[in-house]
Amino acid sequence: MQTKPYKLFDSHLHIIERGFPLTANAGFSPELFSVQDYCQKMRAYNLIGGAVVSGSFQGYDQSYLIAALKKLGPSFVGVTQLPASVSDNEIIALHKAGVRALRFNLQRGGSAELSELDRLARRVYDVAGWHSELYADILDLAPFTSILINLPAVSIDHLGLSKAGLPILLKLVEQGVRVKATGFGRVDFNVPIALRDLYSANPTALMFGSDLPSTRAPRPFLHSDIAIVIDCLGEAHAKAVLHANAALFYRI
Q1: Do the beta carbons of residue 52 and residue 210 sit within 8 Å?
Q2: SS3 assignment for 177-212
Q3: Residue 169 parent element (H or E)
Q4: Comparing C-alpha atoms, which of 55, 107, 104, 50 is closest to residue 75?
Q5: Quick one: three-class SS letters along 72-128?
Q6: φ/ψ (deg, to 5) at 64
Q7: CATH for 7-249?
Q8: How many CB atoms lie within 10 A of CB 153?
Q9: Residues of 158-179 as b/e, b for ≥16 C-beta within 10 angstroms?
Q10: Coil, strand, or helix at residue 16?
Q11: Which of 6, 97, 132, 240 is deepest in the core (most CB within 10 A)?
């Protein structure tokens, strides 16, 4: 495998290590994927950091995330799930451990509910400067676009998932919402066309991520996914999507 020496900030990865709590989600339990497994998968890249994202099967457990961040080092940050009842002191402690964002997993569960989005997203931003990340079919978020646009900082996972929702996603991006260029095997549309349209709408919006180990994805991450970004956007624009946009958003 040959790769070009672009800097890469992996905005979306999961770590699933032995010895930490896991809860089956809709009957699904993931296979283990350790920090060592991740580093081995990404060894060919100029990897300068990334965001470890809590999955539905990890619920509100923070122990795995804190351990993973210690192993990966200070250029990696955490994206966690929290109940609405979380205290300010707990948020501050997680921030000190390297957490930088809150996830609302509306597609799979295991996180706070959509009804808690506005209040909780604003609170973690006020307390620790965190943004919020949403895993949802963008069509399901259509009634909440005004809330999303008015949040201090928010991103959408996996290109919003659905072709029918792309017009909504483009409108959000034009208003400053960020989008993770991740999970290319999860979507039902032409990825290069979507990437070009989203980049044109807001050059700072797109943030590439591997989505490793791609749990439950119909098609897991391929090394050619990075080539898709470079080929469809060109080298100069791809550098922003592969590194600069996410590094700025996550304050690395």
Answers
A1: no
A2: CEEEECCHHHCCCCHHHHHHHHHHHCCCCEEECCCC
A3: helix 166-174
A4: 50
A5: HCCCEEEEECCCCCCCHHHHHHHHHCCEEEEEEECCCCCCCCHHHHHHHHHHHHHHH
A6: -65, -40
A7: 3.20.20.140
A8: 17
A9: bbbbbeebbebbbebbeeebbb
A10: strand
A11: 132
CA distance 220 to 30: 14
Question: Could you read off the pLDDT of 4-43 as tens digits, one per residue?
Answer: 578 999 999 999 999 999 988 778 889 999 999 999 999 9
Q: What is the pLDDT of residues 46-91, one digit of tens each?
A: 999 999 999 999 999 999 999 999 999 999 999 999 999 999 999 9
pTM of the model: 0.94
Place of tokens 């990897």: 47
Q: Are the beta carbons of 229 and 238 closer than 8 angstroms?
A: yes
**Alpha carbon distance 136, 145 (integer Å):** 13
Q: Which two tokens stand for residue 116?
A: 């808690």
CA distance 238 to 145: 28
Structure tokens belonging to residue 154: 């928010």
Give the up-direction half-sphere exposure of residue 17: CA atoms within 13 A in the CB hemisphere: 19
Q: Which residues touch 228 (CB under 8 Å, ≥6 apart)?
A: 184, 191, 192, 195
